Amino acid sequence: SRSCNRIMIIDKTILEAEREKLKTDFDTVTNTINTMKGNLHALNGAIQQIDKLILMSETETKVEETKVEQE
To answer: At 62, which helix (H) or strand (E)?
Structure first.
């Protein structure tokens, strides 16, 4: 029996169009990731600020408690 090999020829125009689509998708994902990174940094900054305020609150409470005990 004779084997049949099929050769597929892909037009350069089709390849270029596919490349453009992939490049567009890549750029979109890159932009989305960069936006998400910005949001991540903003959230981390907010967490750090809250932690600082909690620490200040705890320190202030201890100072107030000490003043009350001394009176």
So the answer is: helix 12-70
